[in-house]
Structures are given as structure tokens and as C-alpha cells.
Hints:
Elements: E1 6-8, E2 16-17, H1 19-24, E3 27-28, E4 36-40, E5 48-54, E6 59-60, H2 66-80, H3 101-106
Parallel strand pairs: 1-4
Antiparallel strand pairs: 2-5, 3-6, 4-5
Amino acid sequence: MGALPVFRWRLAPDGLATRRQLRALGLRPGGQDVVAQLERPRRRRGPLVAYLYRVDLAVPVRPMTPARRAALAKANAARRLCPVCRRDAGYVIPTSLGTCVPCTDADPHGSDGSTR
């Protein structure tokens, strides 16, 4: 396997796109291999890397079916359910808290048992 061509940020040739750019066009990579990468330098850490795919080989995004939509709604509803009070919090419960905000405020030791 040879090394991938590396392009500087914003200097990729036409015909190549990242996953997000493909998605904005209503496309997906469709099983094709990465053909190049972008690197954005940073001062104190390693560069940000984005992989590029060929636009001409990309395929359309699969349509959302009723079953897939129902499964997604069920998964999102589970992320809003507080495990302590068993109520719908109305928002996605942060994993850092583990419970809804009222339950976190009521428990002085936090959901993991440690003192904050």
C-alpha cells in the first residue's frame, strides 16, 4: 500500500471531497477507499486530518425508511430518559452527569458516588 497524497487545508483538487462535503451533496463514499488526505496544521498539537474521497465514485445516500425513522426516534427517546427518576428530561442527558439536572442537584455525591 502506497502513501496517500497529502494536501494543505483548502488546497484539495476539484473532484475530491470529505465525508461531510459528500453528505451536503446528498452522497456517501459507497465503499470506496480513501484517495488523499487534508492536513490543517496546529500550533501545539498534531495536524487535523480529513480524508478525501472521489466525488465521481460516490453513491446517493440511502433514503430514510419508516422503520429506520422509528428506530432513531426510539434511540433518541432512550437518551432523554433519566435512569433515576424515570422521567423524560426533555433534552439529551449528558453522559458526564448520567442523570437529569434535578436528580444531579438533589444528590450531593453525584451519580457515581464521588464527592464533587
